[in-house]
């Protein structure tokens, strides 16, 4: 009963945020469709917008819920399960909504999906709807799980660790990594890495989006495992 009640509570919190998100998206699409001509108006990459949104939802899905549920006697393990029970209908529902948006708004404006742009030569098969659904669900689940893991990790860190991570990670990706690639990696190495990433995500292989969905799923499982290790002994921090 606790599991069902806790998952319903977390789902309710997410649902309200998702409704606001889609209200904004629909408003923007209608606005741009009205102020621009049919040939000039376009909307691209709803999947990435949704993934970023869910990542932010994940970042805000731990502390408040954790403290509230702990005060009501819900064990940590139950909270962990409840989060992912709530995530499944959210990510599946958003996938269905986005696919419906594609069918409807494509008649109004130039509405391009990220999935279609990446795998445009692999989207003509009879099972494409199912593959597209799996690709989107795994992408969204991975995004929200990443946000959940990061906020859990920050919750467990002390003040010095938070400062080091907050400064170190952006500096690494903005300065250190580009410096290494420019000064220590040849053009052939960079090209090899680029082609390797494209192959992993099925852009230039026969596996196509199924390969990417597999990577998203494995990443989600790894992040979930790490999140469980973090939450099982997480202290209650009121401040």
From TrEMBL:
Membrane spanning stretches: 20-37, 43-62, 83-109, 129-155, 167-190, 210-231
Annotated keywords: Membrane, Transmembrane, Transmembrane helix
Top-level taxon in the UniProt lineage: Bacteria
Entries under PROSITE patterns matching the protein: PROKAR_LIPOPROTEIN
Protein name: Uncharacterized protein
Origin species: Ruminiclostridium papyrosolvens DSM 2782
């Amino acid at each position: 009963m606790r599991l069902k009640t806790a998952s319903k509570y977390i789902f309710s919190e997410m649902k309200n945020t998702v409704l606001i998100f889609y209200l904004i998206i629909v408003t923007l699409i209608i606005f741009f469709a009205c102020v621009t001509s049919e040939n000039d108006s376009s909307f691209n990459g709803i999947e990435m917008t949704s993934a970023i949104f869910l990542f932010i939802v994940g970042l805000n899905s731990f502390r408040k819920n954790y403290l509230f549920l702990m005060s009501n006697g819900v064990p940590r393990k139950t909270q962990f399960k409840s989060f992912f029970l709530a995530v499944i209908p959210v990510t599946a529902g958003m996938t269905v909504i986005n696919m419906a948006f594609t069918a409807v708004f494509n008649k109004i404006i130039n509405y391009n999906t990220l999935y279609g742009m990446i795998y445009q030569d692999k989207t003509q098969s009879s099972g494409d709807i199912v593959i597209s659904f799996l690709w989107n669900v795994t992408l969204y689940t991975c995004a929200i799980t990443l946000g959940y893991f990061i906020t859990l990790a920050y919750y467990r860190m002390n003040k010095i660790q938070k400062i080091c991570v907050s400064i170190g990670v952006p500096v690494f990706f903005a300065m250190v990594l580009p410096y290494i690639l420019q000064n220590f990696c040849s053009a052939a190495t960079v090209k090899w890495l680029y082609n390797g990433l494209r192959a992993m995500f099925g852009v230039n292989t026969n596996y196509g989006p199924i390969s990417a969905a597999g990577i998203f799923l494995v990443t989600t499982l790894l992040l979930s495992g790490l999140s469980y290790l973090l939450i099982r002994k997480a202290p209650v921090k009121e401040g």
